[in-house]
């Protein structure tokens, strides 16, 4: 297929997802270009993996009118996103740097959070305006605990004394292979949801974040090469009211939210990010306790004590 479409084409990401997913993968309005194509196409793509390890794939050109309108709309959105969001982010970073020069005790850590979060949003905006999706992560090794500490520092600053955040980390875990920006966005959504649920569930409001090896579980990770990868578990548990049983099976779908004014995108993004990393996510909830469990393949590093 690389003789027809470029090796970094979204088609290969869809095939990778289909290999890990039971059921159909659909991607309407996907841009396709390559050495075997005379021009760039916008296609509706359908993919399904077969029991023999192969794939069934169908691609249909969108109507010419739709192609022109969609391409113009996406390109226009990319320009607006890149300009209208990145400019104020630059101002936020600059203001934080100026305040840092005059900061008093206790402020420098908060200003560092502002700068780091603004830079992370700027990176995501750059990637989104280049039409990158959460389903196409940049895979590199990184320390999961450093990522979680950044998220917890940000959420502690946002929630203040309303929520107690607890950590239960296994320091012997090796690096995770993944996209740190995408996974930070996913865990930020999970931890923020947990904090908001806990603060609505009465006192004391607690959120506990744990990491550990997932005993007895391995992933066959095509993206990272042949062979099995051991799995790690990251769980986020809150003391909120819980999720009704009849909603637990649909909370990862787009536009499913019980929060007033919410758009229902957060958990759907979490699932998309985790799935794109070859992982799994599940929820267990009863009144007074909700736990989201994320399983991710580990890197090849050895266990360490620190």
Automatic annotation (TrEMBL):
UniProt keyword terms in alphabetical order: Phosphoprotein
Transmembrane segments: none
Domain Histidine kinase: 80-300
InterPro entries: HATPase_C_sf, HATPase_dom, His_kinase_dom, HisK_dim/P_dom, HisK_dim/P_sf, Sig_transdc_His_kin-like_C
Reaction it catalyzes: ATP + protein L-histidine = ADP + protein N-phospho-L-histidine
PROSITE patterns membership: HIS_KIN
Enzyme Commission (EC) number: 2.7.13.3
Domain of life: Bacteria
GO MF annotation terms: phosphorelay sensor kinase activity
Enzyme class: transferase
SMART domains: HATPase_c (SM00387), HisKA (SM00388)
Gene3D superfamilies (UniProt xref): 1.10.287.130, Histidine kinase-like ATPase, C-terminal domain (3.30.565.10)
PANTHER family per the UniProt record, alphabetical: HYBRID SIGNAL TRANSDUCTION HISTIDINE KINASE C, TWO-COMPONENT HISTIDINE KINASE
Protein name according to UniProt: histidine kinase
